[in-house]
Write a sequence for this structure.
């Protein structure tokens, strides 16, 4: 993984914005910090992260970890939705989390043999798991190196700030992801660090 990151930094540094951000954040990037070998737990944490801020997600995930500490998957499935809601999530998210644990309870899957499209199609068959969640799973749990999530608002805002763009639509995303490929996942890690720390490239002429 370290070797992949170094190769990615070298490639991405051809982009002046990325070069600037890499100089600042390369020692802070931790690609493995959200990995969990339990697929259910990994996706449950991603469901928690849906549509809330980085800081709020950290707090709620910590409460979730405390709530389920020492509990089996079956015990989580049988937990009342109101108890899950007590960590600060909606009834819908509580139900989605239980859906995930139920789904993987009866299935064994080898994601390594699946293409990106196959992973997305497989995971989005679970009620509550959308394309964004599947993409995050591929980045943080499968370590696929060339994933970009166009519906991630933090990424879009980071691109707007760093590239001095008023609009970031499909054309702009396509142009940038082509430049960053085959390391779009690492570009995402860098852009998230930028927006989380509110440090942006300002060298545009």
């Amino acid at each position: 993984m370290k070797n992949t990151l170094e190769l990615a930094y070298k490639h991405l540094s051809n982009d002046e914005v990325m070069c600037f951000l890499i100089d600042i954040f390369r020692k802070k990037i931790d690609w493995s910090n959200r990995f969990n070998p339990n697929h259910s737990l990994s996706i449950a944490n991603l469901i928690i992260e849906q549509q809330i801020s980085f800081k709020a997600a950290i707090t709620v995930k910590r409460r979730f970890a405390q709530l389920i500490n020492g509990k089996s998957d079956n015990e989580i499935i049988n937990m009342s939705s109101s108890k899950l809601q007590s960590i600060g999530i909606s009834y819908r998210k509580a139900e989605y989390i239980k859906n995930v644990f139920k789904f993987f309870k009866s299935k064994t899957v080898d994601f390594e043999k699946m293409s990106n499209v196959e992973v997305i199609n497989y995971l989005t068959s679970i009620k509550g798991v959308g394309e964004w969640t599947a993409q995050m799973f591929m980045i943080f749990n499968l370590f696929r190196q060339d994933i970009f999530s166009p519906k991630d608002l933090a990424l879009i805002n980071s691109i707007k700030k760093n590239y001095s763009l008023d609009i970031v639509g499909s054309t702009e995303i396509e142009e940038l992801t082509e430049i960053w490929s085959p390391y779009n996942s690492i570009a995402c890690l860098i852009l998230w660090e930028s927006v989380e720390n509110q440090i942006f490239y300002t060298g545009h002429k």
Residues 54-68 form the longest helix (15 residues). The chain has two domains: 2-31+147-197, 39-140. The chain has a mean pLDDT of 95.
